[in-house]
């Protein structure tokens, strides 16, 4: 591709040969000396012109050739870029335009060259003419002409040189740009081809894996069928067959009836559940309505409160102005009264002084007249008048004082009155609010009660159907989650329903309903409290399986193993079982044993054995019951906490050492803790066997693990899935996958869990009876339960 735009250089050999030929005739030293002295002859000029022509011609030819090549290049480019989309078409168009421009330019340049050639020819003619005229012309004229021609020749040569360099420059730039573009396109194409081949490879790998999985499933079905057949044909004698047939005949009616009853009960419970759901929905609606009403009332209360506040402020303002007015009025009245009093006193004083003066005068007069006339009574009359006036003023003063006192009292009592009125209003409001709150609380408690009932019904349904219980534990945000937008929390919880988890995905909220959701604040103890009833039921003879599932770093190990100071389910479960065993020790004898295994890369390893490097196999139990066991898997008896701690430590250490040796990552390995409990009721001789297994991850593609799990998740088992999720945004996809997986698992029906009991006969042979909830009612013991006890010891040495 790159070679397309490489321009052919002028045939320099031809030029050099021609030059050598003429230099022979006119040696370069001589010619140069002539040129430097401006002494070129017409012959020299002719030679120069010819040389120039020879140099130009290849360039022109080259350009012509380039021009001819261009459509081919374009075609080539079109071919290369075919299928690279619009972008490439646009680029091709641009290149095409550029090429057209170049063509135009080349034509122009060619024309210029041709013009120049013509000029040169003319010059040649002129030179010839001059040479023919030379004999007729004088030396001076000739010299003049020669100078002119030489200078013209030099100018033309310079122009030619300039044009040539321009042409070279432009064409080389264009060529470089096109080369770059071509390289880029080639690079892109190579990348695409690599991508396609990677994808093809992946598709092929997936197809191979699918085929492999299909083959495995077919194998397992074939094996199961074969085992069934073997069981039927090898282990059962004619007598057994007859016995079985008879038992089936006898039992089938009762079994059908029991099945019918169970179905009826399930239907009834389903109906009840539907009813409860309906009630819950109604209550929810009512609650919503009440909440709306409450919010309305709250708004009204707030409105009233603001109005009250405003009224209070107004009242206070009015009260203040009234008080000011009152004080003003009182002070005015007081001043007036004082004025009046002063006036009265003044008049009294005046009067008394006048009166005294008068009286003195009068007395003087009287004294003077005493001797002559009888005593005069008019002075006494005047005094009586004044006294009457004073007596008339006194009630007015008293009324004024009384009014003043009343007003003063009113003013003093007014804030208290306002406060009282407001208090009453507030009391009334709070009574209203409280009654609304009480109604709400009542509705809420009813709603919770209904939820609880619904959960109970659901649990009962789960027990009857034998579904797997799915719990979710959300781990807290840790420093490993980093900072930034990826470390944002995306999970929220429902305050009223502990089985709801909301996940906010791109602004949208998705809700998942599970059996229980543990928020990050949940302690190990609280998680264990939820799991413990399941664990104790393995003492009653049920197969129990607890699985922790989740992406790497979501807290599976933390929940199952925990830390030394805060142990997880494994250690707590063993501790609980030990304490239960000691509680029941009066009537029961139990034997607890523990195995620990790890599956890594389809290799099952014993973590408690002396050689933890060797790989173990999973085999069909020889009893023909189609059950599996692991030959050579170490089982260690457990009697106290010391034993438990030793065993767990050993298992952990073996696992860690092996990981260091293999340089593996923990998330690719799957740990199993298998606990076997064998119990015997000392009074009746009834024995129970059960199996509990835990593991850290369920990859369904892992056949070894699936084999072991299919035992634990068998029809007569109780199973619990502990989904572990990380709360941050960067783990959203994995969290969604885990929750969707949990949702699907919740609907998986394992069948009614059955208790495994066996009656030990005095002769040493064993029989068993079903003690499942249904069997305790009407369901008779099944054929499966009549198998010898050794067959039920599934994992561990046969
Ligand atoms: N509930 C929790 N409280 C506090 N820390 C937790 C909790 N759950 C997990 N962690 C912490 O989160 C980190 C990852 O947890 P853990 O190792 O249990 O994840 P994992 O799912 O077992 O990972 P892997 O699959 O890679 O083994 C650990 O540091 C652990 O201490």
Summarize the structure.
With 798 residues, this protein is of the alpha+beta class.
Mean pLDDT: 72
Beta strand %: 5-15%
- Which structural class fits the helix and strand makeup? alpha+beta
How many DSSP-defined strands? 17
Instruction: Report the helical percentage.
Output: 55-70%
Q: Which regions contain 5 or more consecutive residues with pLDDT less than 50?
A: 1-15, 22-42, 66-85, 372-377, 691-702, 759-798
Q: What ligand species are in this complex?
A: adenosine-5'-triphosphate
- Main beta-sheet strand count, sense and barrel state: 12 strands, mixed
Radius of gyration: 57 Å
| Intertermini distance | 74 Å
Shape: flat
Q: Please work out how many helical segments DSSP would assign.
A: 15
InterPro entries: Kinesin-like_fam, Kinesin_motor_dom, Kinesin_motor_dom_sf, P-loop_NTPase
Region (Disordered): 1-42, 752-798
Subcellular location: Cytoplasm, Cytoskeleton
Domain Kinesin motor: 467-798
């Amino acid at each position: 591709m790159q070679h397309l735009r490489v321009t052919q250089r002028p045939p320099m050999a031809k030029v050099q040969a021609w030059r050598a030929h003429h230099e022979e005739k006119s040696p370069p030293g001589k010619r140069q000396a002539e040129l430097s002295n401006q002494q070129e002859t017409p012959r020299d000029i002719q030679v120069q012109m010819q040389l120039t022509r020879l140099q130009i011609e290849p360039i022109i030819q080259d350009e012509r050739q380039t021009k001819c090549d261009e459509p081919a290049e374009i075609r080539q480019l079109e071919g290369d870029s075919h299928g690279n989309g619009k972008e490439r078409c646009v680029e091709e168009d641009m290149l095409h335009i550029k090429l057209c421009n170049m063509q135009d330019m080349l034509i122009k340049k060619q024309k210029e060259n041709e013009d120049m050639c013509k000029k040169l020819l003319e010059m040649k003619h002129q030179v010839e003419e001059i040479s023919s005229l030379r004999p007729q012309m004088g030396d001076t004229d000739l010299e003049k002409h020669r100078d002119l021609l030489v200078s013209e020749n030099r100018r033309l040569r310079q122009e030619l040189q300039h044009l040539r360099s321009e042409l070279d420059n432009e064409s080389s730039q264009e060529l470089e740009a096109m080369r770059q573009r071509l390289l880029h396109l080639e690079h892109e194409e190579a990348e695409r081809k690599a991508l396609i081949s990677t994808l093809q490879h992946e598709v092929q790998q997936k197809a191979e894996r699918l085929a492999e999985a299909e083959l495995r499933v077919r194998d397992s079905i074939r094996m199961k069928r074969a085992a069934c057949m073997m069981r039927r044909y090898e282990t059962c004698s004619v007598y057994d067959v007859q016995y079985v047939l008879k038992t089936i005949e006898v039992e089938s009616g009762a079994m059908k009836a029991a099945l019918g009853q169970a179905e009826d009960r399930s239907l009834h419970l389903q109906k009840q559940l539907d009813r409860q759901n309906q009630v819950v929905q109604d209550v929810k609606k009512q609650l919503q309505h009440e909440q709306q009403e409450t919010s309305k009332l709250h708004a009204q209360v707030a409105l009233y409160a603001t109005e009250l506040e405003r009224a209070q402020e107004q009242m206070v303002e009015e009260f203040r102005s009234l008080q000011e007015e009152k004080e003003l009025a009182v002070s005015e009245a007081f001043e007036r009264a004082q004025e009046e009093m002063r006036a009265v006193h003044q008049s009294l004083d005046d009067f008394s002084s006048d009166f005294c003066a008068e009286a003195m005068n009068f007395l003087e007069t009287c004294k003077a007249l005493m001797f002559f006339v009888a005593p005069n009574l008019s002075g006494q009359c005047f005094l009586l008048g004044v006294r009457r006036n004073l007596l008339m003023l006194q009630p007015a003063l008293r009324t004024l004082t009384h009014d003043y006192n009343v007003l003063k009292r009113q003013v003093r009592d007014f804030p208290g009155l306002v406060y009282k009125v407001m208090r009453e209003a507030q009391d009334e409001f709070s009574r209203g609010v409280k009654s609304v709150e009480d109604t709400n609380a009542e509705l809420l408690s009813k709603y919770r009660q209904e939820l609880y009932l619904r959960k109970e019904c659901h649990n009962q349904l789960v027990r009857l159907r034998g579904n797997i219980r799915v719990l979710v534990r959300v781990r807290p945000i840790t420093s490993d989650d980093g900072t930034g937008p990826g470390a944002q929390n995306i999970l929220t919880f429902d305050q009223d329903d502990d089985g709801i988890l909301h996940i906010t995905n791109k602004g949208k909220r998705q809700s998942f309903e599970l059996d229980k959701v543990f928020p990050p604040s949940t302690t190990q103890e609280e998680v264990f409290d939820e799991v413990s009833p399941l664990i104790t039921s393995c003492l009653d003879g049920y197969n129990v399986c607890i699985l922790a599932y989740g992406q790497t770093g979501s807290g599976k190990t933390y929940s199952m193993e925990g830390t030394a100071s805060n142990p997880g389910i494994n250690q707590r479960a063993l501790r609980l079982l030990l304490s239960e065993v000691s509680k029941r020790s009066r009537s029961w004898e139990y034997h607890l044993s523990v195995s620990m295994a790890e599956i890594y890369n389809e290799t099952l390893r014993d973590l408690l054995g002396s050689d933890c490097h060797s790989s173990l196999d999973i085999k069909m139990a020889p009893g023909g019951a189609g059950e599996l066991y692991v030959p050579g898997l170490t089982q260690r008896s457990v009697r106290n906490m010391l034993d438990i701690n030793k065993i767990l430590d050993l298992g952990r250490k073996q696992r860690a050492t092996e990981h260091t040796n293999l340089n593996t990552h923990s998330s690719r390995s799957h740990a199993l803790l298998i606990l076997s409990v064998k119990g015997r009721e000392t009074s009746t001789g009834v024995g129970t066997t059960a199996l509990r297994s835990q593991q850290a991850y369920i990859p369904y593609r892992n056949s070894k693990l699936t084999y072991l799990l299919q035992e634990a998740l068998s029809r007569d088992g109780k199973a619990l899935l502990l989904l572990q999720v990380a709360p941050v945004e960067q783990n959203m996809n994995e969290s969604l996958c885990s929750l969707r997986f949990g949702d699907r698992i919740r609907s998986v029906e394992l069948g009614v869990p059955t208790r495994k009991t066996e009656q030990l006969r005095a002769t040493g042979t064993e029989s068993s009876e079903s003690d499942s909830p249904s069997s305790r009612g009407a369901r008779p013991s099944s054929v499966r339960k009549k198998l010898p006890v050794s067959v039920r010891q599934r994992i561990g040495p046969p």
